[in-house]
Amino acid sequence: MKVLAVIPARGGSKGIPRKNLVNFKGKPLIHWSVLAALGSKIITDVFVSSDDDDILQTASIDDRVKLIKRPKELAQDNSKTEPVLTHVLKSINHQEFDYMVLLQPTSPLRTSNDIDKALKKLIASEANSLISVCKIDHHPYKSFKINTKGYLEGIINNDFPFSPRQELPKTYRANGAIYIIRVKDFIKKNVLLTDKTIHFVM
Description:
The protein is of the alpha/beta class. The protein has 5 helices and 11 strands; from the N terminus they run E-E-E-H-E-H-E-H-E-H-E-E-E-E-H-E.
């Protein structure tokens, strides 16, 4: 079985300028994701995609790291992740890979062990994708929105905001650390959330 990890790291960032090169606990931010991928016992190939030569050079800490220069049009503020993944797959012989793992550099606390646990969970299941999540402190069903007339109403209905938490379904949010999908399934629809996506709680 072959598993590729993709670490997307564009040069532009308005929130924290050149954030992927910023020092985090003694290392450039991107190093943490590269090291986590290299430390995995299941990932076989590691790719870093960037439009920035400094980032690519910084990420090249091991001969096993393969660098892919990303086109500028895929590195804008409004650029989505899926086209970046598609570009990576088109740049390599993607048919030889079974799974693709997306590791965003902005999750430096995710470990090799986290990645391998998530991969094992997906491989042992009948699902075709996995997203790492965390529990939500405030249940979203208890939230309100403003309708077209300017009045409050429940996001789902007007009963849920006043229902006991125990009666509401469990909800999670993606924590951005790990996304895994079968390569053949991603090629079909270019999405990470499929109709058979399982979760990995972190």
